[in-house]
Recover the amino acids of this structure.
């Protein structure tokens, strides 16, 4: 157990003993929640458990807190403990926790920070899911970063995670894509008048690129195919090319890999759409009117009922989403996370109502809404597109600033907050750049280790640590920052909040830089050097694990 868990266990044991004095049956699953006081002068940890349980025990919070503290204050883990206000308990820990923390990190190494709040629970994170009608833009890039890092966090927290991309390959937008590529294909052979570009057709050099691929594959044989069949061919071929040669390639370059690409078209091919509607009908949430089938969404607070099957027999896009939602549960996922653009905010209540109508738990789905990205250069808004009309592509962003900076800058803020992406800052080799600042801490430690090796010295063993040498302010602050890692993982996993790991990695790097500038490592007395080297090694392991979750590299040199 970590020292935090040890403290929780110690308080819980004392709480149980006091509960017996009051003839109170303490629930087995009672949770002692610890929090770090905002003011470090108030302690290393605090809990309000006495305030939560005092009334049930028939005593005051302060009396209960004093009884608990009396039982735990002499434990070797605790330096001092006190009651504050109406019944908060504040704890200062003895320096032994520093050794315990370092020892735990050095033992667990790549597993340091992992927790098991997921307990193997199956969770699906569905993200990006862009229509295969064009290259990914920077908005998709932010969704990709949020989704991928969220999935990494959940896996690190003990969930069984599946990353899924839902391919919207059915419907009118695919037909429009087919007509757009068909127009460029016909134009290639000087027959633009036979297949004009639709007024609202897709633009950009990538449409010409797809058309040229089909010229190479089919030569002029598609010129004589009947129009309806021709459009089907162009739609299918264009969608396949864009998904596999553009979208997947850009995602791979961005460090994002999916476990499943799920086709909307397959819902129809496998007859999953109409059975889902039938379930709603059986549960009383679907009805017939004016030749169409409707969903009783007003029963869930919607302003009007929604069409499921149009009068012409064609299901709506919403119906496909309902069928797709059902497949998630059918495949065993208990927690389903959607990562959508902020423009889908009005759709959230609708999918939640469908979830309830199908009979699934409200907490079975979560929606992360991604706000827009403002692309700036030194604070000035810029347009950067080279190939796709007004679209700024993810590929262009990655090419200019690199994968690491692109991923981190997209998650600098909460996903429901707008991000200002400063291109010049993202490339700057200075502490102003958060990517450089984090990576430089890791590289700095590697430099010290190289110096250690050059002097013929080896890394010490944990038994070589002398706690008395790590009682200065920056060493304690660094050790505290390291110790917080499992807590931050658990919190980020519960809230599906990847920005929390960016904040954490930045604060850890800040604590290390302060330690480095304050404490001489190599060249100090032997016991001091060994202790500081061990603290440094624990820092690097923690940084590396945090950067791995963020999907950014941990350079040895910079």
């Amino acid at each position: 157990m970590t020292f935090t868990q040890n403290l929780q266990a110690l308080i819980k044991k004392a709480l149980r003993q006091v509960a017996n004095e009051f003839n109170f049956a303490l629930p087995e699953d009672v949770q002692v929640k610890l929090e770090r006081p905002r003011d470090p002068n108030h302690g290393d940890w605090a809990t309000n458990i006495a305030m939560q349980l005092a009334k049930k025990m028939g005593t005051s919070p302060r009396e209960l807190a004093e009884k608990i503290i009396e039982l735990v204050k002499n434990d070797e883990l605790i330096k001092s403990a006190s009651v504050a206000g109406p019944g908060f308990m504040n704890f200062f820990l003895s320096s032994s926790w520093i050794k315990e923390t370092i020892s735990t990190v050095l033992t667990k190494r790549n597993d340091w920070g992992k927790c098991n709040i997921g307990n193997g629970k199956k969770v699906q994170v569905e993200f990006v899911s862009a229509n295969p009608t064009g290259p990914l833009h920077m908005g998709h890039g932010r969704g990709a970063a949020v989704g991928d890092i969220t999935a990494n966090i959940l896996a690190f927290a003990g969930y069984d995670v599946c990353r899924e991309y839902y391919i919207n390959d059915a419907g009118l937008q695919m037909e429009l894509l087919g007509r757009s590529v068909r127009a460029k294909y016909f134009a290639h052979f000087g027959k633009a008048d036979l297949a004009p570009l639709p007024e609202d057709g897709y633009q950009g050099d990538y449409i010409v690129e797809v058309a040229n691929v089909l010229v190479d594959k089919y030569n002029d044989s598609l010129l004589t195919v009947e129009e309806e069949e021709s459009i089907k061919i162009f739609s299918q071929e264009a969608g396949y090319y864009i998904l596999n040669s553009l979208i997947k390639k850009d995602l791979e370059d961005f460090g994002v890999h999916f476990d499943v690409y799920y086709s909307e078209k397959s819902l129809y091919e496998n007859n999953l759409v109409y059975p889902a509607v039938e379930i709603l009908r059986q549960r009383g949430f679907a009805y017939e009117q004016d030749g169409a089938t409707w969903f009783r969404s007003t029963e869930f607070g919607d302003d009007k009922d929604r069409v499921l099957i149009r009068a012409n027999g064609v299901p709506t896009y919403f119906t496909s989403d309902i069928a797709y939602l059902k497949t998630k549960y059918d495949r065993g996922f208990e927690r389903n996370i959607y990562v959508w653009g902020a423009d889908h905010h009005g759709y959230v209540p609708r999918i939640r109502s469908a979830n309830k109508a199908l009979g699934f738990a409200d907490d079975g789905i979560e929606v992360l809404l991604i706000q827009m990205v403002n692309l700036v250069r030194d604070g000035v808004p810029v347009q950067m597109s080279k190939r796709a009309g007004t679209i700024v592509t993810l590929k262009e962003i990655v090419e200019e600033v690199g994968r690491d900076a692109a991923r981190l800058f997209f998650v600098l803020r909460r996903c429901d907050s707008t991000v200002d992406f400063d291109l010049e800052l993202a490339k700057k080799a200075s502490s102003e750049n958060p990517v450089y600042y984090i990576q430089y801490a890791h590289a700095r430690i590697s430099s010290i280790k190289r110096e250690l090796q050059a002097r013929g010295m080896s890394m010490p063993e944990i038994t070589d640590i002398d706690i008395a040498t790590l009682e200065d302010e920056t060493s304690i602050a660094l050790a505290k920052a390291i110790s917080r890692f499992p807590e931050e993982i658990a919190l980020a996993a519960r809230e599906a909040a990847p920005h929390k790991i960016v904040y954490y990695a930045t604060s850890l790097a800040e604590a290390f830089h302060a330690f480095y500038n304050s404490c001489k490592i190599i060249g100090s007395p032997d016991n001091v050097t060994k202790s500081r080297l061990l603290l440094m090694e624990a820092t690097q392991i923690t940084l590396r694990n945090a950067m791995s979750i963020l999907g950014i590299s941990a350079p040895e040199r910079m």
